[in-house]
Design goal:
Blueprint (H helix, E strand, L loop, with lengths): L21 H18 L15 E2 H14 L1 H12 L11 E2 L13 H4 L21 H11 L3 H23 L14 H4 L8 H4 L6 H5 L5 H4 L8 H16 L7 H4 L4 E2 L1 H21 L4 H18 E2 L4 E2 L2 E2 L4 E2 L18 H12 L35 H13 L3 H18 L4 E2 L6 E2 L5 H12 L1
Antiparallel strand pairs: 1-2, 3-6, 4-5, 6-7, 8-9
Length: 455
Amino acid sequence: MVNQTVPPVGSGPPVRAAGQTAGEDGRLWELARDTLDGNWAGGHTVPSRTLYPHQWSWDSAFIAIGWAHVRPERTWSELTSLFRAQWRDGRVPHIVFNPAVSGGAYFPGPAFWASETVEGAPAVATSGLVQPPVHALAAWHAYRRLPSEEGRAALRRLYPRLVAQQRYLATCRDVGGAGLASIVHPWESGLDNSPAWDAPMSAVPAEAAVMRAYRRRDTVHADPAHRPTDLDYARYVTIVTAYRAGGYRDDDLAERHPFLVECPLFNAAMGASELALAGIAEVVGADPGPHRERAVRITEAVVTRLYDPDSGTFHPRDLRTGRLTPARTVLGLTPLILPGLPTRQIEAVLAEARSARFGLAARMDRPLPSHDRTATDFEPLRYWRGPSWMNIVWLIRHGLLAHGHDRLAAGLRTSMIELVAAAGCHEYFHPDTGAGLGSPAFSWTAALLLDVLAD
């Protein structure tokens, strides 16, 4: 379980980072709280009011953590709202569409996904993809921050749905047969256009007709130089179209689907979530043993399938070729969230994290990048190809805490606070200058700032 030693806290007061004053901490606390309040849509929180007007799956998990510090009832509303849209097979869709928002406000919108035509989909319009299963982690972390009867009741309601989510991934998505879940689209990784996907994406056709068939909305609200290229977007649409054509079925993915990858972050989240579910099970009166056993098996599979001893880090495995993808991205550091990760892999990943590629230190000179800073394809401005993201830093920080590396975790905490102090609650940040990039007033940045301020 991630960060088991953190004591429960309420809505403050925040603990100062090095160099912060009490007044500055209070300003940041209020900025984060006001950002979340401004993005509250009644029942759930939108990631931002501009680019992301609906509910996103792993965003809501991170957002729920922040609400625990300022409006705890919204923690459980956030997660309950998301899991009401769970499909009958257990999948939790990566987007839940707000019917009050125009269908043209975001692409791909509800008409593109056509979830209403699929048996087993919920009544509300959703996408057919998933995102990293960090929801049990979030629910358990939020509950331990502020235990309450309301929280226990919410955990009792959420527990069977969280179990169903894990069961779906462990069964329907184990395409490789080795105990790991496969993602069927880069969007499912959460790191949408990471260089980690370049190799498997290169095999996906992107025909001119596909590129003419839709209008992107992201580049209306964000600088196109910061977003995925048109070629990448055409491939994204091609992959979704293939999945949709099969009714979002998973039974024959190996035969027909163009993108199948075992992702280190996705599967590390699965393993860590089993340990979180073990904690939740004890609270709600269920058996924690099977969750602990599954966590061990997933950890072993992550090490066996995704660790590369030559590079000393973890890589996604492309099931179409059977090979690990070559890019050295921040995905390789995320298995630190597995408390049972063997010492050899912990030490190797820490060496990778401390190298010039990522620059992890007790005192960070620059933010933690999402891609190898020394690589020729490092792009400090483009979405997931270099910039620093608060949610990934939060996960790695808690992995460091779980393995007793408090000084390195403190370096990440200070870096997170300093980023927002200088640039505000942006979606992501320049990995060299710390300048704010992407959407302003971004919810998970605000939520996770509250969490680290409260430590």
